[in-house]
Amino acid sequence: MAEIALTCTNAKLDLDAEGTFHLTWKPGSTVSAADAGAVVAAVQAMSGTSRQPMIVEVVDVCMSPGARETLLGTRFVSAVALVGTSVVDRVVAAALLRQQDCPHGYFTSVDVARQWLGQLFAPAAEEGSAA
Predict the structure, then answer these.
(1) Phi, psi of 108, rounded to the nearest 5 degrees
(2) Longest CA span, the chain
(3) What residues does 56 pair with on adjacent strands?
(4) Element containing residue 2 per DSSP (H, E)
(5) Would you tell me which of 3, 29, 101, 108 could form a disulfide with 10, CB atoms 3.0–4.6 Å apart?
(6) Nearest-angstrom CA–CA distance, 24 and 55
């Protein structure tokens, strides 16, 4: 995994060999519009005009209205798998999954989220290699 530098200090962003972004918000942090904008800008800089899938860990974070607006207002990934561990995390995820025009889901395990993303894009990958 390659870590991607961010201008915010409450998140870590990685890109794995399969092209999946993995964003981990620091537990206990509040995500601002500027934090969300930093992530969107970093992902767009790395992926250019293509869109990659993303896993987002939202364990014990608070999303500001501006952060939700920034994340929901820009289509910058091909699919999103949100990961949390509590009922509160599920509520945060539900607010982020509303109005998504790409495949999305909520999971309680990063491994299960990664598996779901892998299955989601597996048929397209197999068709592309057969051509």
Answers:
(1) -105, 5
(2) 47
(3) 23, 82
(4) strand 2-4
(5) 29
(6) 8
> Quick check: helix, strand or coil at residue 111?
helix
Per-residue burial over 113-130, b = 16 or more CB atoms within 10 Å of its CB, e = otherwise: bbebbeeebeeeeeeeee
Name the CA radius of gyration of the chain, rounded.
14
Q: Which two tokens mark 52? A: 């990659």
Paired tokens of 81 = 């798998």
> Which residues is 81 bridged to in the sheet?
55, 105
Instruction: Specify the pTM.
Output: 0.86
Pairwise CA distance, residues 49 & 121, whole Å? 18
- Could you please report the per-residue DSSP string of 18-80? TS-EEEEEPTT-EE-HHHHHHHHHHHHHHHTTS--EEEEE-TT-EE-HHHHHHHHH----SEE
